[in-house]
Design a protein that fits this description.
about 270 residues; alpha+beta; GTP Cyclohydrolase I, Chain A, domain 1; GTP Cyclohydrolase I, domain 2; 2 domains; 5-stranded mixed sheet; 10 helices; about 40% helix; about 20% strand; binds zinc ion
């Protein structure tokens, strides 16, 4: 159903030509109603939108793990269709949990709310493009240690989809030739990487890779300190368990004094 709705919305410009279903749309052929998307062929009528997107990804042999960004394979307007599809399946989950969503006013629209929350909010970093990072040249030829943070981290574990709430500090040692990015961009980039189901160890590595690529510094260091709700809400139910991990690259790896300076500055905060 969800795909049919999106298809109709996307491909029909003239209201009078609206067909009753996507199947009918396709049957009419290309001369009456244009099916613009090459990927939506005859066989795709009634195919869930997630499958259509998945086929595009597979055609490019790209990866689509929980912490991958797949925005390149999503066309404008399709996120709404994905929300509809997830809502439909979330409703089935609620039903399997034997929750009476008909008479329980609290759960009546839960499926739609959860679908929207996943696609448009907490896992948004999978579906939207990387924020634009305006780079500017290092005019004052700074090569002193910069520390950015704490940046608030809101993520979820890939294993249980339980929240991960924490903080991140980023240390950058720019070279005189480095391209710098505005301070707020570190937060934007962090949010983009974290708004996906993640594993803390992989998330910090991904962020470090991105910063190295963008800034080309002499060194990058990241420390992340987070509460994992899959340890607190479920499992061992240990309220105080935290996870701290770090990535050190370039100068931070080679120079123990620099590493010490970075870590000691964090302790003071
Ligand atoms: Zn977990």
């Amino acid at each position: 159903m969800a795909i049919q709705k999106t298809l109709t919305k996307k491909t029909v410009t003239n209201k009078t030509t609206v067909a009753k279903s996507a199947k009918q749309l396709i049957k009419k052929g290309s001369n009456s109603v244009a099916v613009k998307r090459a990927s939506v062929s005859k066989g795709d009528a009634g195919t869930p939108l997630s499958v259509v997107i998945r086929r595009r990804i597979e055609a490019q042999k790209a990866r689509f793990h929980a912490n991958d960004n797949i925005s390149a394979f999503i066309e404008p307007g399709e996120l709404e269709g994905l929300v509809d599809e997830v809502a439909e399946k979330m409703q089935a989950v609620l039903e399997s949990l034997v929750i009476d969503t008909q008479s329980d006013h609290n759960t009546k629209n839960t499926s739609k709310r959860v679908a929207k929350m996943f696609v448009k909010e907490v896992f948004n970093g999978r579906y939207i493009e990387q924020p634009t990072l305006t780079k500017f040249p290092n005019v004052s030829r700074l090569n002193e240690l910069m520390i950015i943070g704490p940046i608030t981290v809101r993520s979820a574990c890939s294993h249980h989809l339980c929240p991960i709430m924490g903080r991140i500090w980023i240390g950058v040692l720019p070279s005189k030739e480095s391209a710098l990015i505005g301070l707020s961009k570190y937060s934007r980039l962090t949010e983009w990487v974290m708004c996906r189901p993640q594993i803390q160890e992989e998330a910090v590595v991904e962020l470090a890779d991105m910063l190295e690529k963008k800034i080309k510094p002499i060194g990058v260091a990241i420390v992340m300190d987070a509460d994992h709700f899959c340890m607190q809400w479920r499992g061992v139910k240990d309220r105080d368990s935290k996870m701290v991990n770090s990535v050190m690259r370039g100068a931070f790896l080679k120079d123990s004094n620099l590493r010490r300076e970075f870590l000691s500055l964090l302790e003071k905060r």
